[in-house]
Amino acid sequence: MIVPEWPPHVIGGGGHVFEAIARHLATLGHEVTVAHGDHTNRNLFAGADVRVDGNLEIMRIPLIPVPPRFAWMSSTFPPTIPALRGLGKLLKRPWHVGHLHGVGFMLIDLVARGLRRRRIPYALTIHGVPNSPLHRGRFAAAALRIYLRHCARPSLLGANVVTAVSNELLRDPLLPSISGTVIPNGLAEGDFYQEPDHRAPRPLPKLVSIARLTKNKGIDIAIAAVAELTRRGILCRYDVYGPDGGDEAEFRALAANLGLRDIVSFKGSFSPAARAGILAGADLVLIPSRVEGFGIAALEALAAGVPVLSTRAGGLADFLDDSNSIAVAPCSESMVDGILRGLDPRLREKVIVGGRNTANRFRWRTILPRYDQMLHDIARRDYN
């Protein structure tokens, strides 16, 4: 398996998905090695290192450091030269099949090219499409399109099987026309929390978002909505959890300019173990995304019994509907109305029940075997 990140150093929800897949395959008796990018590396001369974690072999691939002002490109840079040598040795082993994760990552495309040269079959799973450069000037947008055309496209077309975590990703106009299968993300049994009771909000409601701090996630939309509620005399708190994706400074400045320093809090990254507590303390989870590959934070909130207010962008539409959440347009006016609706106990009870019913359909124990079967099929077609 080749993945752009690995817990605990993750940027989005993909890291924990990669880990769930790898550990499942290893528990079935497969010999599994995971090579993962390390975007936290700050040493240009760092080499790859290998460790054993249970029944997994894990190789860390240090990536060339990204300057702070380009935080939105974290995990997309290529490996360091010493790490490339370690990766080359890894690819020389007699693998039966590879499983690559992600589009727009140099690590993934380098390995895909190496696997094709060695005639090793592989599957490629799309977890999202890097839209952020499209909103960062003409040069960044042009560079993205060139990279996708000349590097990501061969990786996708050379894959024996392509899967995606949502239907929207298979139709993305930035990608070549491909035939693929949707295998959604999932939740572990322990992710289905039963307490506390969220049917009625607290006197001072707490709104929560869990997202990388980039404009694609629409945090600025939610901040503007909270400002309007405050202007109307409707008090609440808004806590934002997640790493900087290049726009945190702008979001902080927006909150300060709108007089929300004591109302909007940026909590930064958090450990997986803290997730249950974050959701337990929330009255309403806001998903104001402009672009979304899947939306694991929304699914986690449904499982936790917390009402969800969502734009339905991208992959969110695969599992969110009026029975389990509140739909809003990606604008502050719509979000203000949605927040007020989301604090109504009668509507809350309906979407909580619907949300837990939906979350029950996304258990890893029913999803992970599909990856195992897919990789088995690829290996059998190539070697039998």
Instruction: State the secondary-structure class.
Output: alpha/beta
Query: Helicity, in percent?
Result: 25-40%
Low-confidence stretches are none
Q: Quick one: CATH superfamily of the largest domain? A: Glycogen Phosphorylase B
Could you say what the CATH topology of the largest domain is called?
Rossmann fold
Characterization of this structure:
It is built from 12 helices and 14 strands. With 384 residues, the protein is an alpha/beta fold. The protein folds into 2 domains: 2-186 and 363-383, Rossmann fold (3-Layer(aba) Sandwich); 189-359, Glycogen Phosphorylase B (Rossmann fold, 3-Layer(aba) Sandwich). The protein is globular, with a radius of gyration of 21 Å.
Quick structural overview:
This protein has 384 residues and is an alpha/beta fold. It has two domains: 2-186 and 363-383, 3-Layer(aba) Sandwich (Rossmann fold); 189-359, Rossmann fold (3-Layer(aba) Sandwich). It is built from twelve helices and 14 strands.
Based on the model shown, name its key terms.
384 residues, alpha/beta, Rossmann fold, 2 domains, 6-stranded parallel sheet, 4-stranded mixed sheet, 12 helices, 14 strands, globular
